[in-house]
Amino acid sequence: MSKGSTIQGYVERQLKRLRANLAEALSTGDVEAVHQLRVTSRRLEEPLEVCRPLAGGKEPARAARRLKRARRAFRLVRELDVLVGSLTGPPGSRPTAEQERMAAELAGARAAQFRRAQKKAAAFRLEMLERWFERILARCASVAGSEVAWGPARLRELVSDRAAKVLDDDPAGAGQADLHRTRLGLKRLRYALELRNAVSGDDCADLMRQFKAGQDRLGDWNDQLQAARHLTRIARRRQILVQQPDFAAAALTHAAGRLRRSQELAETFRAEWAGFNRVVRELAAGPSRGEAGAAPCPPAQAALMLSDGEDT
Q1: pLDDT along the chain (312 residues), means of 10
Q2: C-beta separation of 213 from 306 below 8 A
């Protein structure tokens, strides 16, 4: 097993990306750097889960908390980036006057949140996180030997556990109006699959596209809710209500449209869930089937694939 196809190699690549994106996010506030910083912090939590039973000690939990703090520092910045981008549209498009005003208001809020994020993330000691990962991986090796001995089994278990947690929050069940837990569960399952595929060399392209489609659908659903929340907050300011009632009304109307869109996305996802559920159940059953040669990539459900126009 080459270093490039090991958990250690995966961790080293992600830590390098985290360092680069953190530096760029702190220095320039670049939208993509902020997004990739948060994505990479999530990806790094999966190797921690793989190693936690073998490594023991407090360092896996400390590393997970450090990653979560970095991600949370930029959470509102990322939410506002997504909202501003949806209001201004792609390059060359012409937003309405109301959209431009809402985007300007939100850009001001983004600047304030970015300054707060800079202060929080400036204390993020990446070198300590790197040392923790190094010691965690070394303890795994000392306890269980080479990754060849323990890596594949632990990766299968991780994917199975992640899939089982998704099934625990069945979005088709009674009372499951909020898809937030399903959204987070599918996100973590996708990152677990990415780690397994990176180490095993499996492609699973169709399956990964399906998971991205489902995650994007739920991501769009969540973005609509967050947009409604931020726009309503702006419209409720007394100064806006008194001095710019037309703008307040336009912001609330826009927020109402976002809420209707979120409901449509939720209903579409629930309609797709039956097919998606079959794939997740197969992943959850994985290692328990006792067949070492079982196919690592269950077939994706073609009917669940989003069109290019819907994928976000």
Answers
A1: 75 96 94 96 95 89 93 94 85 80 90 93 88 94 87 91 90 72 92 92 83 89 93 92 92 94 92 86 72 59 42 38
A2: yes
